[in-house]
Design a protein that fits this description.
The protein is mainly α and 103 residues long. It has helices spanning 3-45, 50-73.
């Protein structure tokens, strides 16, 4: 195995580890913050249900942050043959929203 292959493999492993760490920290932060707010409200108001309400909100927020972080790994794909606005198609013709054909 060549040196650059080892470097590339090491870099991929480090990137995967940092993504796992980032996902874990984001999820724990969301749940811990919401639990803390619920606990504080329960102590302040003398109730016992705000912890559960805010913990559920924190779980939903952590799932949302998980989807956001994972979505950054795999960007949405455009259908074949359909470029972004302003890009030329495979035939060399500009799309309808291209600025090239503007006066």
């Amino acid at each position: 195995m060549k040196k650059r292959d080892k470097r590339r493999e090491r870099k991929e492993i480090i990137n995967a580890f940092t993504m796992i760490l980032q996902i874990g920290l984001a999820m724990m932060t969301c749940m811990a913050m919401s639990f803390g707010i619920g606990y504080y409200l329960d102590r302040l108001l003398g109730t016992k249900y705000w912890v559960m309400v805010f913990l559920l909100i924190g779980i939903m927020a952590s799932i949302r942050s998980l989807f956001i972080l994972v979505g950054k790994i795999q960007p949405p794909r455009t259908p074949a043959g359909m470029g972004e606005v302003g890009e030329e198609s495979a035939k060399g013709e500009p799309d309808a929203g291209s600025k090239k054909d503007a006066p």
